[in-house]
Amino acid sequence: MHNVRNGDSNCLCETNCCVFASMSYVRPHTNRCFSIAHAHYLSNSKSVKMADSLRRLVNIGTFNVLQEKLERWLDNYYLNTCDQNVARGCEIIELNSKVQGQLFKLLSVCAQEGGMYGGASVIKSRLLPFLGQNFFTSGATTDTSLSVIAEATAKNREIDEIQDQYEESLRDLECDLRAKELENQDLRDELAETKDQVNRSSRTASTDKLFLENENRELRRKLTDAQDELVRLRARSNLVDDLERQIRQLKNELYITTSKPSYLTSDTIDSLSKYRYTPRVSSPLSMDDPVQRVRETNLISRWNDLFSQDRLDAMDTLRTAFINYEYPPDHENIQRIVFEAVKESFNVAKTAFRQFKMKVRSNLAITHTGPETLEEAVQDYINRNVDLYDAPGMVSDVIRKLNVNPSIFLPRDTTFAVIQPFIRECVKVAWQMSALAHSLDISVASKAELFDDTKYRRSYDSEYTAPLVNHHIWPCLAQGPHIRMKGECCTRRGASLSRRSRSPTRSRSVSPGPRSRSRSRSQSPTRRSRSPSPRRSGFQQVY
Description:
Blueprint: H1 2-6, H2 9-32, H3 36-60, H4 62-75, H5 82-113, H6 120-126, H7 128-131, H8 142-259, H9 266-274, H10 290-324, H11 331-367, H12 374-384, H13 391-403, H14 420-434, E1 441-442, E2 456-458, E3 469-474, E4 477-479, E5 482-485, E6 487-491, H15 504-509, H16 514-519
């Protein structure tokens, strides 16, 4: 070994080969000199020594020191002198020879454990090629040996990397497998919990269903009891309502008989004593009663005739009265007079009919026994005796109310009796409309009210952009909340609630002069002004 340290790398290789050859030659002779038992003892002791030697070699870390020296030599190669580089190389060779000596000892011990020919095949396949003739001198240079070693090292490194990757991928797969198993276990647990919840929910639902069915049966029973109680209470309330209605009717009858003039005649009292109710197919209070339908149709037709004929005749009469007394006829004032006459006729007729109906009810209540109701008997009597009214008295009341109306006026020495025929017809129609089971009436009209297209239509001389009514020309006919016939009004801008009234007394005493002429709204028309008939101008009947 001393010669190897002072020689070059080729001499070192040759020396190693000679050592291997001597070991292979000496080993069979040595093993044959000992017995089998002694061989086993030696093999066990050598195994322990080999393990200790290998552990010391690993703990020393000689190969790490050798690698560090090589890296340091490479870093300082161009900085060192030739002698320094040779010294560094010799130092590394000495260290390498020491390591090789230890390895050869370990190899000899390992070969001895296998018996006479233990490890021979491996030594022949791995080390004999280095002992061939001219192996180191036939062309295999030092660079070639280093390249072979480098390739072997690279292959070993690739194998190690592949093995590491395989192990890492195997670990990842194992981790994924464990994760999937955990997820599957969680899903199994969730499935089990869900099944438990479904079972609990089904049991709860069945219990709730039974409870709700019992509760529904109980509520139905209570509802039936409440309906029965409601029927009993309604029967009692009907009795109370009837009594209260009779009390109110008696009070109204007492008030009217003590405060209003009586329009009842002796014929009315006689007919009440002779009246006997005859059963009918339909109730006289029904909307489908034939008397109600026929009379309602005839009265609406008569209402149209009043507007298209009688109204114009009355306006011509008033215009002639103004002209005869040398007053300029005020067309607006004439329209106001006609409208007020119709309105007062309905007021007087409704008051008289209310008194008449209360008197009939009070007399029939004494002898009425059924099977019809008292109201049906009263309406049947009214339908049969609709003409039992005091027309002259009601006409006089209408003329008296027109005389005290401050919104209209007439010439001097002229009264509203000039339109008495028109007032009589209006009173007659108003009475008959009030006598219906479902009466017809005019809508309430006020001065300067907002124009309502559902109740009125504008006259030909109106301002169609004006929102307020200046004066009414003809009232609107209604049946309860339903409009049956539209009325007519005049809309003008500047219509005000504070319009100055004209006193009838003063207007009659003032002689025609420039002052009275200037107060008139318009000159007398040269021809008879007729408003279009409701049937011809959209004055349609509303049902």
